[in-house]
Amino acid sequence: MAGRNNGNSNTLVVPQANAALQQMKYEAAQELGIQIPQDGYYGNFSTRDAGSLGGYITRKLVQIAEQQLSGSSQFR
């Protein structure tokens, strides 16, 4: 099937963006009061926290894209 990535939906289009996304995840978690597992194991991470974190990051990324499209260089 064309366009498929073998079931891994977490493949980054720009692998170099990984560090920035990780930083954004930790900043978002801090703002939301969510504790990120230090050992990297998310098996005990609540669905609610994962959803809150993912939604926050998505909103932030959309906001950044909208600002870039409008010509604004201010990221908040």
From TrEMBL:
Top-level division of the source organism's lineage: Bacteria
> Which chain positions lie within coiled-coil regions?
none
Note the InterPro entries from the entry: SASP_alpha/beta-type, SASP_DNA-binding, SASP_sf_alpha/beta
Note the PANTHER family from the entry.
Answer: SMALL, ACID-SOLUBLE SPORE PROTEIN A
Q: What does this protein do?
A: SASP are bound to spore DNA. They are double-stranded DNA-binding proteins that cause DNA to change to an a-like conformation. They protect the DNA backbone from chemical and enzymatic cleavage and are thus involved in dormant spore's high resistance to UV light.
Name the UniProt record assigns to this protein = Alpha/beta-type small acid-soluble spore protein
Species in which this protein is naturally found: Paenibacillus artemisiicola
